[in-house]
Design brief:
Blueprint: E1 3-5, H1 6-13, H2 17-26, E2 36-38, H3 39-49, H4 58-63, E3 76-77, E4 81-86, H5 92-100, E5 118-122, E6 128-132, H6 137-145, E7 153-159, H7 166-178, E8 182-187, H8 196-204, E9 218-221, H9 230-244, E10 247-248, E11 255-264, E12 268-277, E13 280-281, E14 285-288, E15 291-299, E16 305-306, E17 308-309, E18 314-320, E19 329-332, H10 336-357, H11 362-369
Parallel strand pairs: 4-6, 4-7, 7-8, 8-9
Antiparallel strand pairs: 1-2, 3-10, 5-6, 11-12, 11-19, 12-18, 13-17, 14-15, 14-19, 15-16, 15-18
Bound molecules: guanosine-5'-diphosphate and magnesium ion.
Magnesium ion (MG) is lined by residues 92-93.
């Protein structure tokens, strides 16, 4: 929401509406509890009351994000973000490697790719596809639970010899719950005991009706090992992406989502960020989860330093105050004071949550044992 009434904000903050009105008056704004204020003002108020907020919900944190929609004219096409899911050993990693390697990708074979949790492939027609390299099913559903819906398309890998297995079904359920379109890649069709038709039939039982069975879920037979069917798979991704009309505004302060983060010896805290909208640049000041920072360097999936990263581009970001969590939003803000302010506020929220979850005292722990 771009605006909120003072009363609604007060309710969410578990504060009295009158107290918010008073605080706003001190800030030079004469408003009543029924009037609306904009996001920046709401954010200021939250920070102001940050220390004595009793009950803080996730939505209050979201309030500090500039969630204003971009105008349709500002939107430009962006690359689809694809996650590969499926049962262990059905060939997820092999397929990712095959897609990144020769044949499908243009001219980047031989380039040293480094693992940053996501990578982008440039196709022969110059269009791009971003693949997420980390999310297991848990990461996928956890990120989604946090509102970090980064995946546009799921590729469900099913080995043609093994068929549907528990994690295949889990992946189907996650994908359905996330309402993300799925493409079924029936892998290992080179194997003697491969039975792709059996896979299609079993999928019916889980209400995944593929094209071959007159449904509308795209399916394709591939062999990650022999590198067959890859062009067709890429075509299907492109087709699905076209249907989704994926767009973002590249000309604004960047927003992104942390895909993975770690403390690197030598380089300090490092986060791989997938930019949602805007363009992230070296020198930008940002908040990321409960951390803040200033972009010291951006490194792409080929290990090259880059000056900027636009929508759907994954980059490693250096210059963070600490290590954020996967799924944390990153947001460019106007200055370092502001970044620290929001980060500190979020730290206090996290602390409150932890305190609320911790056992009250040793005494109560002992009495619980009696
Ligand atoms: P993941 O656990 O889903 O990431 O699966 P991997 O990519 O690690 O593959 C598991 C095993 O299956 C490895 O030994 C691969 O070499 C093999 N494999 C993957 N794709 C194919 C394929 O298309 N054909 C055959 N015959 N083997 C494959
Ligand atoms: Mg793997």
């Amino acid at each position: 929401p771009e605006t909120i009434t003072v009363q609604e904000l007060a309710n969410r903050m578990a504060e009295k509406g009158a107290d918010l009105v008073k605080a706003l008056f001190k800030m030079g704004m004469a408003v009543t509890v029924n009037q609306t204020i904009d996001q920046d003002t709401a954010e200021l108020l939250i920070t102001e009351f940050g220390h004595n907020v009793k009950r803080v919900s996730e939505s209050d944190i979201d309030l500090s994000l500039d969630t204003a929609e971009d105008s349709p004219e500002a939107l430009e096409p962006r690359a689809p973000v694809v996650t590969i899911m499926g049962h262990v050993d059905h060939g997820k990693t092999s397929l990712l490697d095959a897609l990144r390697g020769t044949g499908v990708a243009s001219g980047e074979a031989g380039g040293i790719t480094q693992h940053i949790g996501a990578y982008q492939v440039t196709l022969k027609d110059k269009s791009k596809i971003t693949f997420l390299d980390t999310p297991g099913h848990e990461a996928f559903s956890e990120m989604r639970a946090r509102g970090a819906d980064v995946t546009d398309i799921v590729i469900l890998v099913v080995a043609a010899d093994d068929g549907l297995m528990p994690q295949t079904i889990e992946a189907i359920n996650h994908t359905k719950a996330a309402n993300v379109p799925m493409i079924v890649a029936i892998n290992k069709v080179d194997k003697e005991d491969a039975n792709p038709q059996r896979v299609r039939e079993r999928l019916l039982e889980h209400e995944v009706i593929v094209e071959e069975m007159s449904g509308d879920v795209q399916d394709v037979e591939v062999s990650a090992l022999k590198k067959t069917g890859l062009d067709e798979l890429v075509e299907k991704i492109q087709l699905q992406a076209e249907l989704l009309e994926l767009k973002a505004n590249p000309n604004r302060d960047a927003e992104g989502i942390v895909i993975e983060a770690k403390l690197d010896k030598g380089r300090g805290p490092v986060a791989t960020v997938l930019v949602n909208r805007g363009t992230l640049r070296v020198g930008d000041v940002f908040v990321v989860g409960a951390e803040s920072g200033k972009v010291r360097a951006l490194i792409d999936d080929k290990g090259r330093q880059v000056k900027e990263a636009g929508p759907s581009v994954p980059v490693e970001v250096l210059g963070l105050s600490g290590v954020p969590s996967a799924g944390d939003p990153l947001q460019v803000v106007e200055n370092e004071a502001r970044a620290r302010e929001v980060a500190e506020y979020r730290q206090s929220v996290l602390l409150q949550k932890r305190t609320a979850q911790a056992p009250a005292s040793l005494e109560s722990m002992f009495s619980a044992l009696k």
